[in-house]
Amino acid sequence: MQVTQSASGKMPDGKRITQLDGLRAIAVLMVFMSHAVRSQLLWSGVDLFFILSGFLITGVLLDLRSQNTWRTYIVAFYKRRAQRILPPYILFLIVTSVLFGWAWTHRWYLYFFLMNMPAFAPPVPYGHGVLWSLAVEEQFYLIWPILVYLLSERALAWLSGVLILAAPLLRWFATAYFTRHWLIYTALPFRMDLLAAGALIAMVWRHYPAAIFRWGIKGSWLAAIIVFALCMLSMHPWFQPGADTALVNVWLYELILVGYAAGFIWILSGRCVNFLRTRPMVYLGRISYSVYLIHLAALVFIRQFTRHSLASAAVALAVTLCYAALSWKWVEQPILQRHADAEDLHVPLPNQS
């Protein structure tokens, strides 16, 4: 069904799909602003990260599967992930230890990416609260490579569709049993629809790129309508995650999923997205992993010295960007240059057969 393709993050003409870097920049800015000014909807920037991750990782895995045996497939994948994720993560833990102390070392679940499990939510210290999403992705990495290797692409597409439908049903059912919305917001079973949506888009992109190129612009219209509706509805306390009702746990997250998936398809089509290809946006997307890791710690630290929210946000943003730029130059980029296949923006190329 699928011929062997490269996952080098380039189009058939050799050009990188840079608008996905720009999309990542938007996502990380949304997350930063949600913590800086406590907006009602910008927290959903992390949902964009999940869709993007499902898209990219599925493409990488399908490419690896077509070229390797099980052992080399799984070793190559986890080697890539370790090279990309662990160095900035370890640096982050060292820096936050210098700023806030070593109390986190007593929280063993931080060593095993279990920060989103019910037993440990949300007692994570200082800026470590953002690590729940990293835990979701790491748990996804444990399960999805096995399924990709064992299933045909058709079966994998059907499974993705089932997961997209199952997640809101699980959130609806679990609402009555969880006393805090945080558990539904952070646990993989309740967030798997975003990752599955990204995976499904990856498979459509591989086999039907012409449809995305042709119809993707319509995704911008649907995304705009849904985002507008979300902005209006989120002004009401009863339509915010903290309300923790079945209505919110199903429809708030579903509207975000549909809206962001439609927007993602539009951006993937490359039509009218030149603003995402500008150098500042592309660079911010490249360094977004460290931006995400450190931004909350920077906000917490700066707020110790000023209570002015806008001033603390501005200073924290400057500190965050400087830190991420240094991490990219001296930690992440050297590793990526030595191990070219560790780059985390591998894009599954469309089937050209």
From TrEMBL:
<feature type="transmembrane region" description="Helical">
    <location>
        <begin position="43"/>
        <end position="64"/>
    </location>
</feature>
<dbReference type="GO" id="GO:0009103">
    <property type="term" value="P:lipopolysaccharide biosynthetic process"/>
</dbReference>
<keyword id="KW-1133">Transmembrane helix</keyword>
<feature type="transmembrane region" description="Helical">
    <location>
        <begin position="308"/>
        <end position="328"/>
    </location>
</feature>
<keyword id="KW-0472">Membrane</keyword>
<dbReference type="GO" id="GO:0016020">
    <property type="term" value="C:membrane"/>
</dbReference>
<feature type="transmembrane region" description="Helical">
    <location>
        <begin position="281"/>
        <end position="302"/>
    </location>
</feature>
<dbReference type="InterPro" id="IPR002656">
    <property type="entry name" value="Acyl_transf_3_dom"/>
</dbReference>
<keyword id="KW-0812">Transmembrane</keyword>
<feature type="domain" description="Acyltransferase 3">
    <location>
        <begin position="19"/>
        <end position="323"/>
    </location>
</feature>
<feature type="transmembrane region" description="Helical">
    <location>
        <begin position="251"/>
        <end position="269"/>
    </location>
</feature>
<feature type="transmembrane region" description="Helical">
    <location>
        <begin position="124"/>
        <end position="144"/>
    </location>
</feature>
<feature type="transmembrane region" description="Helical">
    <location>
        <begin position="21"/>
        <end position="37"/>
    </location>
</feature>
<dbReference type="InterPro" id="IPR050879">
    <property type="entry name" value="Acyltransferase_3"/>
</dbReference>
<protein>
    <submittedName>
        <fullName>Peptidoglycan/LPS O-acetylase OafA/YrhL</fullName>
    </submittedName>
</protein>
<feature type="transmembrane region" description="Helical">
    <location>
        <begin position="190"/>
        <end position="208"/>
    </location>
</feature>
<feature type="transmembrane region" description="Helical">
    <location>
        <begin position="220"/>
        <end position="239"/>
    </location>
</feature>
<feature type="transmembrane region" description="Helical">
    <location>
        <begin position="156"/>
        <end position="178"/>
    </location>
</feature>
<dbReference type="Pfam" id="PF01757">
    <property type="entry name" value="Acyl_transf_3"/>
</dbReference>
<dbReference type="GO" id="GO:0016747">
    <property type="term" value="F:acyltransferase activity, transferring groups other than amino-acyl groups"/>
</dbReference>
<feature type="transmembrane region" description="Helical">
    <location>
        <begin position="85"/>
        <end position="104"/>
    </location>
</feature>
